[in-house]
Amino acid sequence: MNSLRLYFRLIVTSMKAQMQFPGAFLMMSAGQFLATIIEFVGIWAMFDRFRALRGWSLGEVAMFYGVVNMAFALADAVARGFDVFGAQFVKTGNFDRVLLRPRSAALQIFGFEFRLTRVGRLLQGAIVLGIATHLLKLDWQWTDFALIAFAVAGGVALFSGLVMLQATLSFWTVESLEITNTLTYGGVAAAQYPLEIYASWFRQFFIFIVPLGCIAYFPVVGVLHRPDPLGAPEWFLYASPLAGFAFLALSFLAWRYGVRRYTSTGT
């Protein structure tokens, strides 16, 4: 059985297990939807009071919000294994059994659990993206759809890379969750707004270090067909989501380094 086929079998098994309790699944999905939609209600309230944010309208900010939340919801679903890696694999010693199996450790962790309940957050992000389209009266072209899909895919890669780095840190300290939460949940909150409103050093960090701006800000500017206030060339607006995949590749190299340094629980 090749790796891709094995991965999909693991995902299907995880989904079947979660659907054994459909009531719990529906309530958790609804909870995800309602908990996150409140965030957008807060943004709406701010724009209802101030009308614009440095020249950016509610519809434009809603598009940032929709793209980054859809990407995060998908990443949170597929990378659940890395999110709980320290507690469920390193602390318990279960990672030893993973290493004994004749398959990639990363593949097994990715297939550990597909968090199906994140469909609530995904749906919420899609609805907000629809609201943005309505407010802006956008005339979508196929290139715009492709760029949004590319941005979401790049975002999934970026957020997956972040939780992979979190898992890698747990080889040295299993209490690493809060450190990376400042970049995952904090990064989602920051990427919901245009980079232009932040200080220069903050913008540089989210472009060149943790490239959240490359998977949300620049692609959305390209879809809006407006000049970038930061002065990015037009070609970069369409190529910037590649930074998310590059970040995932670097995270995978760090993960492999951590696996080689793993010394088990000692029990």
* Helix proportion: over 70%
Termini distance?
33 Å
Which parts are unreliable, with pLDDT below 50 for 5 consecutive residues or more?
A: none
Q: Which shape, going by the Cα principal axes?
A: globular
Helix tally?
A: 15
Instruction: Count all strands and give the number.
Output: 0
Q: How confident is the prediction overall: mean pLDDT?
A: 90
Largest sheet, in brief, is:
none
Gyration radius, rounded: 19 Å
Strand percent estimate = under 5%
Helix/strand-derived category reads mainly alpha
What pattern of helices and strands is seen along the backbone?
Answer: HHHHHHHHHHHHHHH
> How many domains make up the coordinates?
1
Notes on the structure:
73% of the residues lie in helices and 0% in strands. The chain is mainly alpha-helical. It starts with a helix and ends in a 7-residue tail after the last helix. The chain contains 15 helices and no strands. The protein has one domain. The protein has helices at 3-18, 22-50, 58-78, 80-83, 85-90, 95-100, 105-110, 119-136, 142-169, 177-191, 200-209, 212-215, 217-224, 234-239, 242-260.
